[in-house]
Design brief:
The chain is built from 14 helices and 15 strands. With about 525 residues, it is of the alpha+beta class. The chain has 3 domains: about 260 residues, no CATH class; about 60 residues, no CATH class; about 70 residues, no CATH class. It has a 5-stranded mixed β-sheet, with no helix packed on it. Helix 3 packs across helix 10. The relative contact order is 0.12. The N terminus is likely disordered.
Length: about 525
């Protein structure tokens, strides 16, 4: 509810202690955030309608920037790189869900099993509202290209405990987040300090062509950004931002290569026409007459009995006509050879590789001549490891979409409170289905090296190495994994004892069996 008494379009999640605001220290600058929201300075008076004037030029720049990103994404090389990133980030399984909610890090004393089950059910409900099983890759691609993703949240305002009923996609170029900063004078110094900050979203049907927009409440809009900001730290940019210049350079090189080949590929003829002592005007007229006689040719068609005009179009790209005065050689026809370096495309390949590096995709994935080799982990290139880390970082940014919707949905249904969510938030994670063969090879190689190291030092257990040292330093087990391993061993030993088998030895007794000592030779009897 604003100071003038009107309500923004959408809904608001009211806090229990909404009237009792905490005392904050005065500051002359508003707080910064990585969401790229634009700031509007206000004197303290509220707005009197459902429309608000905003900085049209800046909104227009953001809309044009998004259109540039979308134009760059249509380039064949960029589109091929985007397909690699999207397919690696969002893996669509036949039976498994592309994303899953992980609450294992939260202890049972902080969150009961019933609440965990409800959160899992509501998370699946959010996925069904987004139709993520079918539109997940397209949704991720839109977010990756635009650098932001907006959804309008629809609820039943009369019965908000039903939670989120529908989630509708909003064009990123038409929505903008705004912070309205209200200032006041400090009581003692008289300096203008920040009094209050109001956040809302502005929707414009035709951005850049209108100076007004509809205000939306922050709770009614789901907003996820790429987390990248420009050099001024005020505008959200896309992951394609650093690929704008290489893409334009590649386009210019390709266009210049085509123009050069069209201009230099054909072999041109040079006609030296003897004009004698004719004046300049008459010489040009004479040369035009001869040129026209070659261009127009009347041919008799024996099949139809008609006279047909076969035109021989000779443009300046094909032939040259040059007059020659008296005293030189007579009329002569020679040929001008075409270009010799038409097959050199090293410059185009250079800018193409530069574009691939800007897109963070390994070159081996984009080269059609490369062959996929599934070998040992030592054959994995460094670019593949960097690419997998980049995909994991992008996934973490994109997972905020599900967590924000889940938070609002569960709070409205009364399953949890905002304070509980804030306390659990660091331990709540979203796992994505993985399909990276190179990462699997790397994990197998690491496991192979650990097992080989364990075999090498097994002869020194427990003389020099303890069981706990082997589990923690060699196999890299944490406390939970060690507890689970001991439980499994105890259960296995109990089953073996019931069936009459010998129990499995612990890791500390993984030593080869001792060889039996040879009997001492008997002393010879004296006669």
């Amino acid at each position: 509810m604003s100071e003038t008494g009107f309500r923004l379009f959408g809904f608001e999640l009211k806090k229990v202690n909404d009237k009792e605001e905490k005392r904050k220290s005065d500051s002359i600058v508003p707080p910064t955030d990585d969401d790229g929201a634009g700031y509007i300075t206000s004197t303290g008076a509220g707005f009197s309608g459902h429309f608000v004037d905003i900085d049209g030029d800046k909104a227009k720049d953001v809309a044009q920037l998004i259109m540039k990103y979308r134009g760059v994404s249509m380039h064949p090389d960029v589109d091929m790189a985007l397909e690699e990133i999207v397919n690696e980030s969002i893996v669509m399984g036949e039976e498994e869900s592309p994303v899953k909610l992980v609450l294992d890090s939260i202890e049972d004393k902080d969150m009961s099993k019933q609440v965990k089950e409800k959160l899992h059910d509501e998370f699946n409900h959010i996925l069904s509202l987004l139709n993520f099983s079918e539109n997940g890759q397209d949704m991720f691609k839109r977010w990756y290209i635009d650098g932001r993703l907006f959804h309008h949240i629809i609820i039943d305002e009369k019965q908000p405990k039903k939670g989120i009923l529908e989630v509708r996609f909003m064009d990123s170029s038409k929505v903008r987040k705004v912070r309205e900063v209200k200032y006041k004078k400090h009581e003692t110094t008289g300096v203008r300090v920040v009094d209050k900050i109001d956040e809302y979203f502005v929707f414009q049907e035709k951005p850049g062509m209108q100076s007004q927009g509809v205000k939306l409440t922050p709770d009614s809009v789901s907003y996820v950004t790429s987390g990248l900001l420009d050099e001024t730290r005020t505008k959200v940019i896309s992951y394609l931002h650093k690929a704008l210049k290489p893409t334009n350079q590649l386009r210019m090189m390709e266009d210049s290569l085509v123009i050069y080949r069209l201009a230099r590929a054909p072999e041109r003829r040079i006609f030296y026409i003897d004009v004698g002592n004719l004046q300049k005007g008459k010489a040009e007229e004479y040369m035009k007459t001869i040129r026209a006689s070659y261009r127009n040719k009347l041919v008799y068609d024996s099949e139809t009995g008609e006279i047909r005009d076969d035109r021989k179009h000779m443009t300046m790209l094909e032939d040259f006509w040059l007059p020659r005065k008296e005293g030189g050689r007579g009329t002569e026809i020679s040929s001008l050879p075409g270009g010799d370096n038409l097959g050199q495309i090293e410059d185009v390949i250079y800018f193409q590789k530069r574009l691939y590096r800007a897109l963070n995709v390994p070159l081996s994935r984009l080269e059609s001549e490369s062959v996929f080799v599934s070998g040992r982990g030592g054959e994995i290139t460094k670019e593949e490891i960097k690419f997998q880390k980049f995909v994991d970082k992008v996934r973490r940014k994109f997972s905020k979409l599900f967590l924000n919707l889940l938070k609002k949905h569960c709070i409205m249904k009364g399953l949890i409170t905002e304070e509980e969510w804030n306390s659990w938030k660091p331990d709540i994670a979203v796992n994505f289905l993985r399909d990276n063969h190179y990462a699997e090879l790397k994990d197998n190689e690491i496991l192979r090296e650990r097992v080989q190291t364990l075999d090498m030092i097994s002869v020194h257990i427990p003389q020099f190495f303890s069981e706990d040292y082997v589990l923690r330093k060699i196999l890299r087990y944490d406390d939970d994994e060690i507890k689970d391993l001991k439980k499994e061993k105890d259960a296995h030993n109990d089953d073996a004892a019931d069936q009459g088998f010998a129990p499995a030895p612990p890791v500390g007794h993984m030593i080869p069996p001792e060889q039996p000592e040879e009997p001492e030779p008997k002393a010879k009897s004296k006669k």
